[in-house]
Amino acid sequence: MKALCNCEGLLTAFGMVSGVVPARSPKPILQNVKLVANTDESSILMGTDLEVGIRHRVLGMKVEQPGTVILPTARFGSILRTSTDQELALEADGDHLMVRGLHAEFQLPGEDASLYPEVPDFGASAYHVVSAADLRKLIRRTIFATDLETTRYALGGVLVELTAESITMVGTDGRRLARMSAPAETENNAPNPGGSPVIPVKALKLLERNLNDEDPPVHIAVQSGAAAVLVRTERAVIYSRLVEGRFPRYQDVFPSHVDVKIPLEVGPLRLAVEQASIVTNDESRGVDFQFSSGYLKLASQTADVGSSHIELPINYEGKPVDITFDPRYLIDALKTLDDKTSITAELIDSKNAAVFKTDDRYTYVVMPLTRDR
Amino acid sequence: MGIIRELPASVINQIAAGEVVERPASVVKELLENALDAGATRIDVAVERGGKDLIRVADNGKGMSPEDLPLAFRPHATSKLAEAEDLFRIATLGFRGEALAAIAEVSKTRCQSRPADAAEGAELSIDAGVPAPIKPCGCPPGTVIEVRHLFHNTPVRRTFLKSDSTEAGHVLDTFARVALAHPTVHFTFRSAGKLVHDLPSVTGLKERVAVFFGQELADSLLWVESQVESIHLWGYVAHPSQSRSTAKAQFLFVAGRYVRDRSLGHALNEAYRGLLMVGRMPVAFLHLELPPEEVDVNVHPTKVEVRFRDSQRIYSQLLSTVRQTFLQSDLHSRLQPVDDASPKETAPPASSYTLSTSSADRQAVASWFTPSASPPLNFKPYPSPGYAGGPLAPTNLPEWAKSLPTSPPVASGDAFNELGPASVSTAEPIPDAPAPEPARDTPPALAVPDLPLKAIQVHDSYLIAETRDGMMVIDQHALHERILYEELRERVDRGHVESQRLLVPEPVHLSASEAAIVLEQAEVLARLGLEVEGFGGDTVLVLSVPAMLTGLSPERLLRDLAEHLRTKPLEPTRDALVAELLHMVACKAAIKAGQRLTPAEIDALLERRGLVHDIHHCPHGRPTALIFTKSELEKQFGRI
């Protein structure tokens, strides 16, 4: 392999790919990334930990002699970041990899590229299409509600439901649940994937970093049989195995009827909740919410820490409702929303789930805290 | 013709023997108890081949006349009981009148006995239940019983016996239990012709403990005593640095009888909660004196189990007594002595003898390590005042027992009030006390809170701090964990426990017994914020979890608690369960070993140290600090 690489193009790809590479692995070769140099501007940099993999296009490669080379992630990353050159020359024979700049030259050990596992490419002809901006929003608003610890359910990821018209993502940790839907299309009449594909958090974070709101639509193909999902963005293909296990029947979580609906605005609400949560701690974390005509009162009280009383005018005339929340659960969700967004709280009583809804098809369910009063 | 017939007496005895006489050790127990019931002050035990070939127990008790001799070996013949009501006020060790008959049925037994006032003794030999005629013989006052060839007529039974050394071990265990229960009686024990133990009568339990368990353990014993109405509890518990992996070193004596009691064993474990590492069992030697009608010993033929009329009260008395002692004591772990075993240079002068006994007890808490402080090893037999009056009938056991704490004539009553400041001050005026004067033994713990500690961190895990009389090595994780635990606990005591409800109730499969107990205790758990309900079968639904533990999976939480509930025989208290939860929280939140601390952080940590009730151990029972006394450092460097 012999090629002249544009440093900037390579660094962009490298930044994205090296995030996947495991720091420690029983298969040491996985601690590297693989560069496939092709003459036709389709050079690819790939990395994988066998759970999640990414193939990222490398721009600005002038390939003299196509081939494949294994790059040690940490060392090569440092070379790229410290290099002042516009371009770097890469040359690999069986034993060595030479990296040359104008004033710098490195010799790195060469490794057998055929030992590096192939990261699957996006091969599907029928797939779902979602706008990049929507997908980013979906990920940001659901990913925080996941629970990486649990083993009972597949909660270490976000459930993705694809239909011909829409995509829905659901994240939950058993105490709160975030669900959001957005429009979607199908290409070549892609069937709705069966089962309940749950994409791990790590893959979603990688995907989110890979997306810009202005990007062209994203292609998603779920391989039910292989228990994997492939996502094609403008610059990369991301492969991820699905989280094994069952996702709880989240539809049962939404109350079938609600007693009161209270319109709220995200910005002021978030501020009020953040203020009230100042005087909570890990052992006493409840903030009491008292919804009454015209006012929402938030109160918290913690031994040794203090107490707080915050009032927020609200546009509500109806029966008063008292409920206690873990404020962090609310803040998590409110942080992902614009301050101007209006949000509706749907409540029953202090024991039942509270539901928050926005106009853009986002639903957030929180179970209240109870206290022996 | 009927098929039911009455069994001949010999068969009845053999059946009884199956219950009472299981192995040589059971014979030794029965014979020793008979000897004690006969008021013996000296008892010699000898066994051959672990007791399989010969068990010989000789006492100097009141003996039996030739007329009594055959009766003694008849079933249900006894001198210790006259009518049914007597069963409820049993003051003797035996009373069933079964043992001798049963033993004689399965062995070759010879009994020689002479009352002190008789001119000559009488001898009775019984071979497998068949008595030979009584003949006169010469013997000292008292009774000698020889049991040869145990189980020779029940070969199956014989094959079930273990090796000689194993059986000898069991016999020795039995012997030790009896000897510990009766320190005022002179015991000897020979096995295979060798003198194994010669235990002159002593005034305290401690010397006996030293013989059986070593001086180090004996020196670490803490005196506990309490009297609630008619129930008198006294004895020793070991410093938490001494522990065992089994409960075998826990001795509970009820009216001089070794018993096992699950509930009291549990009380003891509760008292040590947080002081011992998980899986370690405390060491204790406790006597319980209570009116005979408060306890029913007629539960099991071998009488190792008893029933208390009010076991709950005894449970709480034991728990609070031991707890109280710990709270008043310095429980820092000491560096294990290097050559502490070296005998004391000079025997303590007679004048300070009694003082050193009393200070020995204080040392147990204060500084048993101090190398040159001499624990009085070479005790002479020391007759207690209450013991002077002739042969000691077991009925007056409580008397000598009560006389124990005050037996050193000079020591005031509260010298045993562990480490009350008073006992320290009584020690100070001693002019000619051996090397480090007792004042130096003032427990550092009492002084620690008002000492500004300066500490350095080593290996990012330990803090070394100077104290007034030495230095202290502190485990930063253990200390922080303990501090957090105490703080959490206080906070939780004052506030409410919050409960986070789950969106989807989580089913947890438990074992049948766990599921049953969890559901039984659902109300207690609900007050902790853990709501559960049955889901049919052994599955339990978790509806909500304590908010402070949201990081923990409900399943694990419930399993841990179910395990906790299942292994504790008594009603779980909310406190015990909360403690369990807080342990989990504190451990997660505490700074870890290997974490570098800034000097400010170290200072803050040490400052908070004084605010905590029990700074000696982390909630799991590991010590938080090791003490190196100045004198020990000097000794190590050869300066003294």
Task: Write up what this structure looks like.
The complex is a heterodimer of chains A (373) and B (640). Chain A has 373 residues and is α+β, with helices and mostly antiparallel strands. Chain A folds into three domains: 2-115, DNA Polymerase III, Chain A, domain 2; 127-250, DNA Polymerase III, subunit A, domain 2 (DNA Polymerase III, Chain A, domain 2); 255-366, DNA Polymerase III, subunit A, domain 2 (DNA Polymerase III, Chain A, domain 2). Chain A is 17% helix and 40% strand. Chain A is built from six helices and 27 strands. In chain A, the strands form four sheets. Chain A has a nine-stranded antiparallel beta sheet. An eight-stranded antiparallel beta sheet of chain A has the order 15-11-12-13-26-25-24-19. In chain A, β2 and β3 (44-48) form a beta hairpin. Chain A is elongated, with a radius of gyration of 25 Å. With 640 residues, chain B is α+β, with helices and mostly antiparallel strands. Chain B folds into three domains: 9-203, Heat Shock Protein 90, CATH 3.30.565; 207-327, Ribosomal Protein S5, domain 2 (2-Layer Sandwich), CATH 3.30.230; 355-640, no CATH class. Chain B has 21 helices and 26 strands. In chain B, α1 crosses α4 (99-105) and α6 packs antiparallel against α7. Chain B is globular and about 90 Å long. Mean pLDDT of chain B is 73; it is low at 335-450. The chains are: A alpha+beta (373), B alpha+beta (640). The interface between A and B is medium-sized, with 34 and 27 residues.
